[in-house]
Automatic annotation (TrEMBL):
SUPFAM superfamilies: P-loop containing nucleoside triphosphate hydrolases (SSF52540). The keyword Cell inner membrane does not apply. One of its GO terms (molecular function) is helicase activity. It comes from the Bacteria. This is Uncharacterized protein. Transmembrane segments: none annotated. Keywords: ATP-binding, DNA damage, DNA repair, DNA-binding, Exonuclease, Helicase, Hydrolase, Nuclease, Nucleotide-binding. The keyword Transcription regulation does not apply. Gene3D superfamilies: 3.40.50.10930. PANTHER family: RECBCD ENZYME SUBUNIT RECC. One of its GO terms (biological process) is DNA recombination.
Length: 103
């Protein structure tokens, strides 16, 4: 299977979930150079419901599935934007809400 990779991002296209889970298990076995040991591995999942299935599949493969952070694409994009642009303005903060009520 062909992997498209950037320094911190690997994409494995496939419709076979078992194949993707096995590839993820292989990748998690390899240490990432210059990554702190306690930093969680981020795994993108298409939906929240897949998290538990993937955790149990990885635990069956490794014996344990820990220090993994599962994000949906929306959560991943929000985190990337926040890291690059700073936190978003809260439209429901007290000052903004008061001004909107008076206008």
């Amino acid at each position: 299977m062909h992997a498209t990779s950037a320094p911190d991002f690997r994409l494995y296209p496939s419709n076979a979930l078992d194949t993707l889970a096995a590839l993820l298990a292989q990748e998690l076995r390899r240490p990432v150079p210059e990554q702190p040991l306690l930093q969680p591995e981020v795994v993108l999942i298409p939906q929240v419901a897949m998290r538990r299935w993937l955790q149990s599949t990885l635990a069956a493969e490794h014996g344990v599935a820990a220090n993994l952070e599962f994000l949906t694409p929306g959560e991943f994009v929000a985190r990337a934007l926040e890291c690059n642009l700073g936190p978003a303005d809260d439209d429901l903060d007290m000052a903004t809400t008061q001004w909107r009520l008076y206008t």
